[in-house]
Amino acid sequence: MSDGRLPVDGEFALLLTHDVDRPYKSVQGLYHAVERRDPGQLKSLVPGVNPWWQFDEITDLEASLGVRSAFYFLRERHILERDPADWLDPFYWVEHAGRYDVQTPEMTDLLERLRTGGWEVGLHGSYDSYDDPDRLRMEKVALEAALGHEVVGGRQHHLNRGPRTWEHHRDIGLRYDASPGSSSESGFEYGYRPLRPFGDEFVVFPLTLMEAALPDPESKFERAWEVCSDLLEEADENDAVMSVLWHPRLFTESDFPGYRDLYRRLIERALEMGAWVGPPGEYYDLMDHPRSESAGGESAGATPSRAEPALDDRGDLRTDRRGITK
């Protein structure tokens, strides 16, 4: 907006997102049973028992507060689709173990319920797709086929990004990306407003907070809340657009105590402060966008094209004891 005001009715904006990495708990139950000395964790190996399927709990929580969010769905490669050299890397086996298919009846039913309920469904580009436009396009087409509706934005898996990732996103028809950010640090590193890397209608929503960056709320709930509260105050003081990521499996109270309560408290406090709260796709639709003169050129009335912020490396891909991707 030319006068600096937000395009929404609110003191600031809080964008709610969920990366759907691992909706099924299986072999992770073995790890948790040993790590926590809790044989009850082995119940997740029983067919039909899946504590990480938290979609109803999330949507019920959000609906009770009168808000909606975005869910980004992933199609990670099968290990046999990879170069044989990758078969020796334990990281790719971990990714393989979390795979799921958005075209199964259970998933298509979920996608339909999310879409008709007012939640946004977006693309969670697979680990290597940030630099593979053909694969990224295929994943978008597959998700849209399962959803029966257009997908307008998303976030790359592990927050991966390269010099041409945003160009690939725009070329396949995405209108926004929500990847820039960190799994270990929180804050407004990229400023307080969305970015327009090409000076046109393509928008980037930097990630302000991933739950993995917080102190573990199981033992340090008030410290974790203090980080959230301080970010909300900073957003309010700067009329900011703040974006947060909570992975669905972390709503499983038995495995990740405190994260569900922290998420609810974050939303409640934002609403008390007069924030606009919702998914990035809805916020995007409320923004004023310049008209493109060409697919790759400057736009009439657009702000001058700005260079991408300096790219970080692809990040530390280790996981902490909570099983959260770092």
Give the overall form.
globular
Number of domains: 1
Helix content: 25-40%
- The sequence of SSEs as H and E is EHHEHHEHEHEEEHEHEHEE
Short description:
This protein has 326 residues and is α/β, with parallel strands linked by helices. Helices cover 32% and strands 13% of the residues.
Descriptive overview:
- It is a single chain.
- The protein has 326 residues and is α/β, with parallel strands linked by helices.
- The chain is built from nine helices and eleven strands.
- Strand 10 and strand 11 form a beta hairpin.
- Helix 7 packs parallel to helix 8.
- It is globular, with a radius of gyration of 19 Å.
- The protein starts with 12 loop residues before the first strand and ends in a 26-residue tail after the last strand.
Keywords:
single chain; 326 residues; alpha/beta; TIM Barrel; 11 strands; 13% strand; disordered C terminus
Topology (SSEs and partners):
Layout: E1 13-20, H1 28-35, H2 55-64, E2 70-74, H3 90-97, H4 105-117, E3 120-125, H5 133-147, E4 153-156, H6 165-171, E5 176-177, E6 203-204, E7 209-210, H7 217-237, E8 241-245, H8 259-272, E9 276-278, H9 280-286, E10 291-292, E11 299-300
Parallel strand pairs: 1-2, 1-8, 1-9, 2-3, 3-4, 4-5, 5-6, 7-8
Antiparallel strand pairs: 10-11
Helix pairs in contact: 7-8
